Amino acid sequence: MKPTISLAQLEQLRRNAKRLARDKCIPLHEAQARIAADCGYRNWSQLVRGGDSAKVPTRVPAASSIDARTRHYLHGDQSETDVAQYFCVMCDQMALAEHFFDGMHDREKSVERYLRSALNFEVWSPAELRNLRRPGNPTNVLSEDVAAYHEARVAKEASRSPFNRWILLQINRDEPIGDLARDVKSDRDFPVSEASLEELIDYLSSQGAVDGAIRAMRDAHAEFLKCGPQVG
C-alpha cells in the first residue's frame, strides 16, 4: 500500500527533487522519477495525484483511462494542473505568463530555446519516449512569439542581397574572406539586405572591425562583382 502524502509533504518532495537534480546534475524529471519510486509510486505524476487527492477528493478513474507516463513540458508549455502556470526550462520551474515577458529572459533566446527543445523532442527514440508524453497541440505561452519569429526569419531570408547570399557561400575558405563570411553569418545584426560596399564598410567600422576585416570586405566585394552574376 502506498503511503499517504499530505500537501506539505508534496511540497517538500518537490524541493527534494530540485535539490537532487542539482546535486546529481540530472534532469528534473529524472530526479522526480527517483523520488516517486522511493515513495512507492510508479512515476511523479502518480505521486502528485496522490498528494492532490488530500486536498480535493475526486472519483478515481478506471485504470485503463490513466496514462501513467510522465508529462514532458517544453519551454513555455502550460501546466496540466494549473492553467495559470507555464514551464520555464531556463529556471526549471513553473511560472506565471508574465515571467516570460518581463525582461528576465531575452525573448528571442527564449523562443529559440523552445524551438530547440521541440526539435529534440521530435527526434527522440521510442525508447527515450517510453515513459514520457506530451499532447499533440498543447497550449504554449510563447506561441505568438514563435509565429512572429518564423515570420521574421522568412522576411529576413527574402531580403538578403545577392552579395550577402554570395558571401555566405564562402564560409569554408581558409583565408580572410572565409573569416569574414563566418563573422557575417554569426552576426545577427549584419545588414543582410545591403549591397553597397560603402555602407557595408560603414557598418563594419561602426562595430569596431580591424583593418584586416575591412580589407577582406573590399576584396570580397570585388570578387563578387567579378563572379557574382554566375552564383545562384
Automatic annotation (TrEMBL):
<dbReference type="InterPro" id="IPR023089">
    <property type="entry name" value="YozE_SAM-like"/>
</dbReference>
<dbReference type="InterPro" id="IPR036806">
    <property type="entry name" value="YozE_SAM-like_sf"/>
</dbReference>
<dbReference type="Pfam" id="PF06855">
    <property type="entry name" value="YozE_SAM_like"/>
</dbReference>
<protein>
    <recommendedName>
        <fullName>YozE SAM-like domain-containing protein</fullName>
    </recommendedName>
</protein>
<feature type="domain" description="YozE SAM-like">
    <location>
        <begin position="163"/>
        <end position="225"/>
    </location>
</feature>
